[in-house]
Amino acid sequence: MTAHHPEGWRKSSRSQHQTACVEVGRIADGAAVRDSKDRSAGFVTASGSQWRAFVTAVKTDRFG
């Protein structure tokens, strides 16, 4: 698994019936994110520490 080949793409169980979602894949030290409607457009990556900080910010409603 490298930044160029994310594995295990998945989207939130809360958005299984939605078409406008993002998917998250695993990379060696972090995560990759892509648009579920346009997978061929590529993806962006975040290191493990960046991803953890993002998830914490979402869980604590920092973007609300």
From TrEMBL:
InterPro entries: DUF397 (IPR007278). Residues 8-59 form the DUF397 domain. This is DUF397 domain-containing protein. It comes from Actinopolyspora alba.
